[in-house]
Amino acid sequence: MKFHIALIPGDGIGPEIVEEAKKVLDRVAEKYHHEFTYEKLLMGGCSIDAYGTSLTDETLNRAKAADSVLLGAVGGDVGNSRWYDIDPKDRPEAGLLKIRKGLELFANIRPAYLYKELKDACPLRESIAEAGFDMVIMRELTGGLYFGERKTEEINGVRKATDTLVYDENEIRRIAVKGFEIARKRKKHLISVDKANVLDSSRLWRTVVDEVAKEYPDVTVSHMLVDNCAMQLVKDPAQFDVVLTENMFGDILSDEASMITGSIGMLSSASLGATKLGLYEPSHGSAPDIAGQNIANPIATILSAAMMLRYSFDLDEEARAVEDAVQKVLTEGYRTVDIMAEGCTRVGTKEMGDLITERI
Known about the structure:
This protein is of the alpha/beta class and 360 residues long. Helices cover 40% and strands 21% of the residues. The protein has a 10-stranded mixed sheet, with helices on both faces. Strand 8 (189-194), helix 7 (200-213) and strand 9 form a beta-alpha-beta unit.
């Protein structure tokens, strides 16, 4: 099969980690007889340097024409960077918001998986870390409280702020469909998280999720209130497979889930829309302080590439091969500096990429 991939290395460690992910993808193409073609695009600070803005319309259109987009990281040191002495709409992070909107990406997927080799880094008690967990937080990305009408006003000398939480059934249905489709590729268990005991938006959310569930009889679905979910994530994370929720709840719960894995350098993510086109990126930032030193951890970007294989290209076997290769390297005791532990072998960015590539 043939796929065209837009590569956006970005800033800081972005070019280094994207190069290692590309190395892994090339190995997948060779072994499984696919053809991956690449087009490097500028976004973030490097685009500001070249074009005066973090994302040009031409770059966005070229990204739209690709089969998928793999992103490194954008931005620099906010307190010490020429990229932040300009209009906020042209700053590095603005490009990220623009490309998500331009590609019509409404579903954010963030896996949280605890490798047994990294269980000592998990902040939860030993028995929970020993049991492990493997979940996906499915967050609606373009609706809810963050995008509702808002205003601040003064009434009779008292300042008053209003934020409006709005969802319509179509917004809920499309993210629910994505959630059920992903559950089908995993353990076929979906938990929908809301606040239906208080919020009308959550009651509509629950109703629409139940309607969509009828189309996926092979997936077990249940509902959980968000406050209970926050507790259950630290009490018994192994119970979760796919967690489906709205924008603000997903923002909070995905950060909680990522924290209990013990290392942000291992966390991949994806943003999807109604088509197979997706934007795949590590959850960490551009880390300009370590750029160019061959010490950044490329695993999150490599795992993001595996997500691309699975969700945009429907290459499940190939995605598992990448994930298995990461597991093998960790089992053999190789570590980048951020996950280094006693008795392990420290390697750099390029060496980690090579080790994973060799095991596919």
